[in-house]
Amino acid sequence: MTHAIRFHQAGGPEVLRWEEVEVPAPAPNEARVAHSAVGLNFIDVYYRTGRYPIGLPSGIGLEGAGVVEAVGSAVTEVKAGDRVAYAGGPVGAYAEARNIPADRLVKLPDAIDMKTAAAMMLQGMTAQYLLRRTYRVQPGDTILIQAAAGGVGLIVCQWAKALGATVIGTVGSDEKAALAKAHGCDHPIVYNRENFVERVREITAGSGVPVVYDSVGADTFAKSLDCLRPLGMMVTFGQSSGPVAPVDTQDLSKRGSLFLTRPTLFTYTAKRTDLVQMAGELFDVVTSGKVKIEVNQTYALKDAARAHIDLEARRTTGSTVLLP
């Protein structure tokens, strides 16, 4: 028998339980992966609290890295012994071992260790689609990233800087401002002390930015719109402060014919060809040194509830991994 974190009802971190589970032989299209590390992401909180409904009881977690132990009869993508990683589901990564559809796995380059892989897949591929597909950042662009010292934020700051952009980022403290600045954020703004709309307008000489990447949600949405120039794009890709209220499309018109999108990694990686291409681009920027993955917190997998408490209290920076 192996162990996994499971929950039987939606609620606070206390609903997470360390349970014995059985991992059967893989189905024809599955691979069994023994995890070396598991990624912690805010979307896990959404599942745990019921904000994203899921059938219960359930496992939890969308990101992990490990070694393939066995494959089903129809699997061609990987083989036993391969070092692999994945992000985006199906849910159930908080486990010592699990079965997962093999077409969701990507092989890891030798230069990337397991903790780094588990920390980078969901956040790194999110950064990839934000910067290279949702709004394709060009040299000379000035962008705004909310929560710049978070896991996605630190990757976006570095990657956007490598692309030749000027990066503005909001953070919650001077310590996080220093962290963001050290990772390519040209203009960190401490949002609870400064008016970030006024600062963005000042930095851009009144014109606003072409894109805002916002994972905070309710608390920042309207002000993020105020930071955009005409024809700018609002990218809302998370809701750590709560869901965004319904939007009047006339408001987008009045603010300058703005674009609004709510993308998800699941959509961008639905085709395996896209998944492999996105992961490959992420691996390239990490192995080149242009983007450094900061694993700033580690917890034992069985202590996932404590990790959730710290995540929700905004006591974490960069990426966090859970170790089986």
From TrEMBL:
Q: Would you tell me the Gene Ontology cellular component terms?
A: cytosol
Q: Which Pfam families match?
A: ADH_N, ADH_zinc_N
**SUPFAM superfamilies linked:** GroES-like (SSF50129), NAD(P)-binding Rossmann-fold domains (SSF51735)
For this UniProt record, the keywords arranged alphabetically read as follows: NADP, Oxidoreductase
Occurrences of domain Enoyl reductase (ER) (ranges): 11-322
Entries under CDD domains matching the protein: QOR2
Q: Where is the signal peptide?
A: none
Keyword Ribonucleoprotein assigned to the entry: answer is: no
One GO term in the molecular function aspect is: NADPH binding
Q: What protein does this entry describe?
A: NADPH:quinone reductase-like Zn-dependent oxidoreductase
